[in-house]
Design goal:
Elements lengths: L1 H19 L7 H8 L2 H15 L9 E5 L6 H13 L8 E5 L5 H13 L3 H31 L1 H13 L19 H13 L4 H19 L4 H16 L4 H34 L3 H14 L13 H5 L4 H8 L5 H4 L5 H17 L4 H10 L1 H9 L1 H6 L12 H20 L1
Antiparallel strand pairs: 1-2
Length: about 425
């Protein structure tokens, strides 16, 4: 009963913070922006398009719903958002589908809308609440795992440190980003391996293949390298052995877990292109072009960020920007506390714990997980350059969550020693 209460308490606080910014831990301007950023208008456009016809009109893709010939994508998206909330029914002039993702989250929302036919304001509130609650539950489960393994004190300190990191919650309720999907295999894996270890490989492959498909369905290949590395951390933490057999099993199992859901997702996306354009070739061409564009280095800094153009030649510009931004609301502290400070604290704590021969496996897993955000910032530079309003989130998948755990273990160990 006590653990259930703690879980409920953590979930409730995370949910209130994500959905309503109840504690004002998220900067007000960013929280208001996150309610309607341009990506979410693609979901709104899809909902309107489905209300005008069927769920799979225009391939079932998300997109911008236009009522006129004047508005650009941003203006058209905001106009469709206002019309959606106010139940303004106007003829469709044009629908511009966003074809880089399945848009499965919006397909689910549209089916829900078709079945229940609720007020549009109620709909969008429910969809946002679902995403907020899913993220909150997963973070609370992570803290419950910490409590079981390291004690209530470490769990409580981790809770305080997590909630101060507003980037993890900023788009937690977004009907587009669906932040929770990036943590599902990681959190589930912690409990799975705690219970089964490496004794149930078939269960592992089946269940994780399903979770991978859920990710591809809801958010496509967004942050794909981050997701893949993040999902493997529990496997490495619980079962790692420095043997050739371990590496071969790791590669084989994760190849199956990744490739089968990916192929199913690509097949469905090609089916959408067939509905939209009449052939599959357009879909293959679009996917290749999307990858090439996201990994391109064709971007240029201007004005106050012009100094980064020098670092760009050495591929350091993105890393510098993403280490230098504050992880805590500057309105609360009146000072900027960059991510580099949190990472430096993690290094110090890792050294202290390692010298005490404490949780060395966790330390190794933590620093291996740093490859998750670094892989995205290195391989998909163009995305990181453009999407600096969201890409800071990847630090937490799960690298900074584990850094926070190391800091919690070090601080609780220090207080026990002092006592």
């Amino acid at each position: 009963m006590k653990e259930k209460f703690i879980f409920f308490l953590f979930t409730a606080v995370f949910f209130l913070n994500t959905q309503f910014n109840l504690f004002h831990l998220i900067p007000h301007d960013k929280f208001e922006y996150s309610r309607l950023e341009e990506s979410e208008t693609l979901v709104i456009g899809k909902l309107i398009n489905s209300q005008h016809g069927s769920v799979f009109d225009d391939g079932g893709f998300t997109g911008t719903f236009y009522y006129d010939t004047i508005s650009g994508r941003s203006a058209g998206g905001k106009k469709s958002y206002n019309n959606y909330l106010n139940h303004v029914v106007s003829p469709k002039f044009y629908y511009d589908p966003y074809k880089s993702q399945i848009g499965g989250q919006a397909i689910v929302y549209s089916v829900f809308d078709k079945i229940f036919g609720l007020n549009n304001k109620v709909n969008i509130f429910i969809f946002r609440m679902f995403n907020s609650l899913a993220l909150s539950i997963l973070l609370a489960l992570f803290l419950i795992w910490i409590k079981r393994k390291y004690g209530m004190a470490a769990s409580a300190v981790s809770f305080i440190l997590i909630i101060l990191n507003y980037w993890i919650f900023l788009y937690g309720k977004s009907t587009w980003w669906c932040s929770w999907v990036y943590f599902t295999p990681f959190v589930y894996g912690l409990f799975f391996f705690e219970k089964y270890g490496s004794a149930e490989p078939r269960k592992y492959i089946i269940r994780f293949s399903f979770l991978f498909f859920v990710k591809f369905w809801f958010t496509g290949f967004e942050f794909i390298t981050v997701f893949l590395i993040c999902s493997a951390i529990p496997y490495l933490y619980y079962t790692f052995e420095n043997r050739i057999s371990f590496y071969s099993q790791f590669i084989k199992r994760h190849f199956i877990i990744t490739v089968i859901p990916m192929l199913l997702s690509v097949a469905f996306q090609l089916f959408q292109f067939k509905l939209l354009t009449g052939n599959f070739r357009d879909g293959l061409k679009h996917l290749v072009e999307a990858y090439m564009r996201r990994s391109s280095g064709d971007y240029f800094y201007e004005k106050e960020f012009a100094y980064l153009n020098t670092l760009k030649n050495y591929h350091l510009d993105i890393i510098v920007r993403y280490l230098g931004n504050s992880f805590i609301n500057e309105d609360l502290t009146h000072i900027k506390i960059p991510f580099a400070v949190l990472i430096a604290a993690g290094i110090i704590c890792s050294i202290m714990l390692y010298r005490k021969n404490t949780e060395r496996r966790l330390i190794v897993a933590t620093w291996f997980s740093a490859l998750a955000p670094l892989s995205w910032l290195t391989l998909f530079k163009e995305h990181a350059h453009i999407h600096k309003h969201i890409d800071f989130f990847i630090w937490y998948c799960p690298f900074l969550l584990l850094i926070i755990l190391l800091i919690s273990l070090t601080s609780t160990s220090f207080f026990k020693t002092t006592k």
